[in-house]
Each structure stands twice: as C-alpha cells, then as structure tokens.
C-alpha cells in the first residue's frame, strides 16, 4: 500500500496522462501535504492552463503551484499559486 503522497502523485500523473493537450513528458510533479508543484516547459499557454486545471480536480489536492514555463519565460514568471 502506497503513502497518501504517492497516491495523490499517481492520480495527478494519470490526470495529466489522459489530457492530450498536455505534453506530460515535459511536466514534472512534486506533492507535499496535498500541495502539487508542477515544473517544466510547454510550448503554449493553454497547455499550462490545462495541466493546472487537470491537477486541481484530483481528489486530495489542496492547492497547485504552477511553475511550468513557456519558451523564453523565467521560472519567476510562471508561478501562479492557488
């Protein structure tokens, strides 16, 4: 039996896997205390938005820190929080 964190992480990865708009191999996920931090880089703003929306709907997620970047964007410019 996995830990709560591993279970939430698995569900988050599954949600991203099934969304064809999200290049899941380019998005990294960390989970701590129900907070999901996403990082990586995608090509288009809607891909970043889709990833965040997918993750927010996963049971057990209390908040999302979206640090996914767009081309030419710094890590600071990508964070959106809750």
Automatic annotation (TrEMBL):
It comes from the Bacteria. It holds the Pfam family BON. InterPro entries: BON_dom, Lipoprotein_DolP. Residues 4-72 form the BON domain. This is BON domain-containing protein.
């Amino acid at each position: 039996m996995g830990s709560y964190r591993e279970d939430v992480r698995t569900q988050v990865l599954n949600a991203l896997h099934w969304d064809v708009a999200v290049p899941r191999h380019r998005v990294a996920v960390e989970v701590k205390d129900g907070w999901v931090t996403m990082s990586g880089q995608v090509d288009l703003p809607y891909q970043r938005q889709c990833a965040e929306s997918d993750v927010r709907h996963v049971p057990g997620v209390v908040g999302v820190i979206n640090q996914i970047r767009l081309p030419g964007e710094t890590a600071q410019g990508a964070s959106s929080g809750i």
